[in-house]
Amino acid sequence: MSLHEQTDTGDPPRISTGSAALDDILGGGLDGNRMYLYEGRPGTGKTTIALQFLLEGARQGERVLYITLSETQQELELVARRHGWLLDQIDVFELVSPETTLDPDRELTVLHPAELELSETTKLVFERVSEINPTRIVFDSLSELRLLAQSSLRYRRQVLALKHFFTSRRSTVILLDDLSSQENDLQLHSISHGVVLLEQLAIDYGAERRRLRVVKMRGIRFRGGYHDFTIEKGGLEIYPRLIAAEHHAPFVGEFVSSGNAELDQLVGGGLERGTNALLIGAAGVGKSTVALTYAIAAAERGEHVAFFAFDEGRGTVEARARTLGLPLQSALDAGLICFQQINPAEQSPGEFAATVRRSVEDGGVRVVVIDSLNGYLNAMPDERFLVLQMHELLSYLAQQGVLTILVLAQHGMVGPMETPLDISYLSDAVLMLRYFEVEGTVRRALSVVKKRSGHHEHTIREFSLSSQGITVGPPLKNFGGIFSGAPRYSGDGALLMAVGEHAQS
User: Considering only CA atoms, which of 341, 337, 332, 402 is closest in space to residue 372?
Assistant: First the structure.
């Protein structure tokens, strides 16, 4: 039975769009023998994804046709070559070809009435479709047909005529529209079985962002909202919007050790799998080092770790690890820690979420470090969306049993601190790291201010960074104002750590 033939029982089989990610967004693909609309401004990727649709049909042995009113076959072949494709299995019908324009019986000039031009164009399309009988058709583009029609009524009638003809030929059709009309052409939406909108956004700095949205799809339950995508060699790389509720995996909620007994004691025995911890504090106080300590401890247990760095390069992180005596290099060489540098100016949040998901599902990652949320914030045009995306990403990681370590730098060094983004309510545990001054020396303090999943110490402990790594001291008693940066001591003898070798975070 053909993919386009419907059965009397059950849901009829879907056909692939040529993109596995778009098929996933649509819940399995398109309904056959229908007409769909891909719309977007020039440069959004309509031609590329349309060619993917035809190439998928050709791979399945179907006869496919690309009808072009605006581009030549040579232009299409150049696009295909740059994607590594061959169009030898795609019939390309040029309505702008030299053979058409030079035929005395078909030559169209400005002296001919618009009705004649439109009728002649439609006739040529019908003849070619009847000749090769394709199962998949791309019509590029409707803007040319709109110009020929000259009136919205004639244009609508012509599109309806195309729809009825293609349906009678049992063809699945993709219409391309470049939105060149002054008004939104909603009549196309009402005629089409489904509509996919592609957009290209120019941000103030960095690469352009592309996204798509399924506007409508009759009888198909699809994943709504915007989905980021990029145009790569080989076609559109689409990143479906992450919905955590769709992903569940069984796991044991055991404690995860940092490898430092005092730090584990401070957080109540360790951080649990399926939770996330937010490390918050001033720049250089040691947040990244604490996160790195958890990552290396996991690697020493044989677990896979993904370290996503927004702010620092791999060389800087490796140099810090050597200074602190942390065996990062051996974990990197063994492939247990995967260090990925993220450039927020070039990568969209949807692409980042897809990268994290691949590391968990394909790479078996059990600990994820995001350093830092400040860099992630820069990737978003509006921080409201950052909170929503981060909530979905953290929920997904929690349901996969992954421990997530988040780093967030506050504004300022000592005294009152400002947080660029309040994400503490999304965090299962919050560890606050602060500088404080005692007798002319700068010290570091650490405390757990929140932990949803169980008991933790309510004390504030001093800690230091040295060539032996992180050393956590006893609770700071008889002190007040530690987190304000101006402590007051009321005891007889301060239980402070000896001043030793310190390193940056």
Answer: 341
Residue 214 shares a structural domain with residue 306: no
Q: Clarify whether residues 99 and 222 are in a common domain.
A: yes
> SS3 string of 397-447?
HHHCCCEEEEEEECECCCCCCECCCCCHHHCCEEEEEEEEEECCEEEEEEE
Give 140-187 pLDDT, tens digit per residue.
988 888 888 888 888 888 889 999 999 899 999 999 999 876 555 677
Mean pLDDT check: name the lowest of 66-70, 407-411, 458-462: 407-411
Is residue 227 domain-shared with residue 256, that is, in the same domain? no
Q: In whole angstroms, give the CA distance from residue 225 to residue 196.
A: 11
Distant-in-sequence, close-in-space partners of 182: CB < 8 Å, separation ≥ 6:
none
- φ and ψ of 73, to 5 deg: -65, -35
> What's the rounded Cα separation, in Å, for the pair 354 and 237?
11
Nearby residues of 80 by Cβ (< 8 Å), 6 or more positions away: 51, 86, 87
Same domain, yes or no, for 196 and 267?
no
For residue range 327-368, what is the model confidence (pLDDT) as tens digits?
Answer: 999 999 999 999 999 987 788 889 999 999 999 999 999 999
Which tokens sit at 461?
């402990």
Bridge-based pairing of strands 469-475 and 461-466 is: antiparallel
